[in-house]
Amino acid sequence: MQNGRRVALVTGSTSGIGLSIAQKFAQMGYAVGLNSFEPAADVADTLAQFGNAEVRYFEADLADPRAAFALIGEVTEAFGHLDVLVNNAGVQKVAPIEDMPPADWDRIRAVSLDSAFHTIRAALPGMTQRGWGRIINIASAHGLRASPFKSAYVATKHGVVGLTKAVALEAAEKGITVNAICPGYVWTPLVAKQVTDQARVHGLSEEEVIRNIFLAPQPTRQFVQPEEIAELAAYLCGEMARSITGSAISIDGGWTAK
Ligand code: NAD
């Protein structure tokens, strides 16, 4: 292994869950590729938070299939190889299906599901050659259960779980594991913004929106914290997780136990 250190790419890692996973990997001594569609100048503060860790930013809009595929080549060229791929980037749109703009359906599917197909296609040959790899797809409780008004998101996340299982079988004898993490509601900027929007739409206080809408399906009545997802991702990258593959691992406060 080059320089004895692992190399990880986390897509959509300038915020929320992806940023937390990237921070955890950096603390573990990994070289880390951060990614978002934002220009590099806009993420300078985020990058600075990593101090002296070996972290680089790769701008790529993952809605573009060519950019998603090319991203793997850029990271591999910059760091020498790629050991861990976390497909985390995702977007959301809440609307009844008859009001769901086709462009939003396309973008949600492209950013979460199609991009994972393209990055995995590009990353697998290098991992196979090295005989070791970890692919972690951030799906959702909505990869296992549905909610109304989230047709594109639910369909996409179910697709991510299916993709995970198929690739896990293909990679099973190559020292590569492929898993989906399925979080319930996680307190991130994505969710904080939805709380504000829903409060305005429903004429409720933010506390009522959190209690009656967001935490209603989550039996613990608490948000999952991004750091909890990061710890699970780190565990999946260890040797003792080598037999965990093709799994959709829930971290959802009991949501999918119902
Ligand atoms: P977030 O909005 O805080 O972060 C999303 C990240 O993806 C950002 O860095 C953003 O720049 C990036 N991104 C968005 N579109 C992109 C594109 N076209 N190309 C490249 N990067 C892009 O969101 P989050 O809550 O941290 O969610 C991260 C992942 O976790 C998503 O896949 C989401 O579906 C999933 N998830 C979130 C929750 C939750 O409650 N927050 C629950 C289950 C699953």
Unreliable spans are none
Within the CATH hierarchy, at the fold level, what is the topology of the largest domain? Rossmann fold
Mean pLDDT, all residues: 96
Helix content: 40-55%
CATH architecture of the largest domain: 3-Layer(aba) Sandwich
Architecture overview:
The chain is α/β, with parallel strands linked by helices and 258 residues long. The protein has two domains: 7-184 and 225-250, NAD(P)-binding Rossmann-like Domain (Rossmann fold, 3-Layer(aba) Sandwich); 187-223, no CATH class. Helix content is 45%, strand content 14%. It contains eight helices and seven strands, in the order βαβαβαβαβαβαααβ. Strands 3-2-1-4-5-6-7 form a seven-stranded parallel β-sheet, with helices on both faces. The termini are far apart. The site of nicotinamide-adenine-dinucleotide has 29 residues, from α1, β2, α4 and α6.
Please name the defining characteristics of this protein.
258 residues, binds nicotinamide-adenine-dinucleotide, Rossmann fold, alpha/beta
Write the layout of secondary structure elements.
Layout: E1 7-10, H1 16-27, E2 31-36, H2 44-48, E3 55-59, H3 65-79, E4 84-87, H4 102-130, E5 133-138, H5 151-171, E6 176-183, H6 189-202, H7 206-214, H8 226-236, E7 248-251
Helix pairs in contact: 1-8, 3-4, 4-5, 6-7
Nicotinamide-adenine-dinucleotide binds next to α1, β2, α4 and α6.
In short:
The chain is of the alpha/beta class and 258 residues long. It has helices at 16-27, 44-48, 65-79, 102-130, 151-171, 189-202, 206-214, 226-236, and strands spanning 7-10, 31-36, 55-59, 84-87, 133-138, 176-183, 248-251.
